């Protein structure tokens, strides 16, 4: 009986040691180089951008860079967090399980909230309140 308990205890210890928890963060799906292809919202008409337009967003590790017409415009840190309140913030009714993550730039949690979704090779960023004509939808394609 003692040997059965000892064997069971040994197996349990090996199992616990072997199931070490991985605390590393998964690589974010937003990382990479994205080129602006479309902007819609506000009081402006929908605008399409040709390939090679120089309006680029780059996300690497926890850093971002934004380029306008090929020139550096902004850079700093970013974080991605889960946020289930996109509908309330954007004043929109959204399909279920969409726009559940948002980007926080430069640790500024008080700035306008930017929610995102990636489908295939397209990154969609939503911000502002669409009901008051202040909503903005920017679409980028991965390059």
Structure description:
- This protein has 143 residues and is an alpha+beta fold.
- The protein has one domain: Lipocalin (Beta Barrel), CATH 2.40.128.
- The chain is built from two helices and nine strands.
- Strands 1-3-4-5-6-7-8-9 form an eight-stranded antiparallel beta barrel.
- Strand 6 (101-105) and strand 7 form a beta hairpin.
- It is globular and about 35 Å long.
- It starts with a helix and ends with a strand.
Describe the protein's topology.
Blueprint: H1 2-18, E1 32-41, E2 44-48, E3 56-60, E4 63-68, E5 71-82, H2 86-90, E6 101-105, E7 114-119, E8 122-127, E9 136-142
Order of helices and strands: HEEEEEHEEEE
The portion of residues assigned to helices is 10-25%
Q: How many structural domains in the coordinates?
A: 1
- Count the beta strands: 9
Unreliable stretches (pLDDT < 50, length at least 5) are 4-27
- In the CATH hierarchy, the architecture is Beta Barrel
Helix and strand content put the structural class at alpha+beta
Number of helices: 2
Main β sheet profile: 8 strands, antiparallel, barrel
Write down the oligomeric state.
Answer: single chain
Amino- and carboxy-terminal Cα gap: 64 Å
Looking at the structure, the CATH topology is Lipocalin
| Proportion of strand residues | 35-45%
Mean pLDDT: 85
Strand order across the largest sheet: 1-3-4-5-6-7-8-9
Which shape, going by the Cα principal axes? globular
Radius of gyration: 22 Å
Text of the CATH class: Mainly Beta
């Amino acid at each position: 009986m003692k040997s059965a308990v000892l064997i069971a205890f040994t197996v349990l210890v090996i199992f616990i040691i072997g199931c070490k928890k991985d605390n590393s963060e998964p690589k974010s799906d937003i990382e990479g180089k994205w080129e602006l292809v479309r902007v819609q919202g506000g009081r402006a008409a929908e605008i399409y951008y040709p390939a090679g337009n120089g309006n680029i967003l780059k996300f690497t590790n926890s850093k971002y860079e934004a380029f306008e017409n090929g020139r550096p415009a902004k850079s700093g840190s970013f974080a991605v967090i889960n946020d289930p309140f996109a509908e309330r913030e954007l004043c929109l009714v959204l399909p279920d399980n969409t726009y559940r993550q948002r980007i926080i730039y430069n640790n500024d949690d008080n700035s306008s909230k930017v929610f995102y979704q990636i489908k295939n090779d397209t990154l969609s960023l939503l911000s502002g309140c669409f009901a008051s004509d202040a909503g903005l939808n920017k679409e980028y394609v991965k390059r």
